[in-house]
């Protein structure tokens, strides 16, 4: 019984840690995009086929 409770607690802790790191990664990605856009040399490509350029 104690083992079952321990394993459930472990699973909940792992899930919460995963969510925390996921949110931190999202914040970091957003900050890097905002940092890029604040650079004076950043000029986004607004052509209609801009996405097609990066397709494999």
Description:
The chain contains one helix and no strands. With 56 residues, the chain is an all-alpha fold. The chain has one domain. The longest helix is centred in the middle third of the chain and has 36 residues, at 2-37. The radius of gyration is 21 Å and the shape is rod-shaped. The N and C termini lie far apart (53 Å). 0% of the residues are buried. The mean pLDDT is 81.
Compact description:
With 56 residues, the protein is mostly helical.
**Class based on secondary structure composition and strand pairing:** mainly alpha
Unreliable sequence segments: none
Mean pLDDT: 81
| Order of helical and strand elements | H
User: DSSP strand (E) fraction?
Assistant: under 5%
Task: List the main descriptive attributes of the protein structure presented here.
56 residues; mainly alpha
Topology:
Layout: H1 2-37
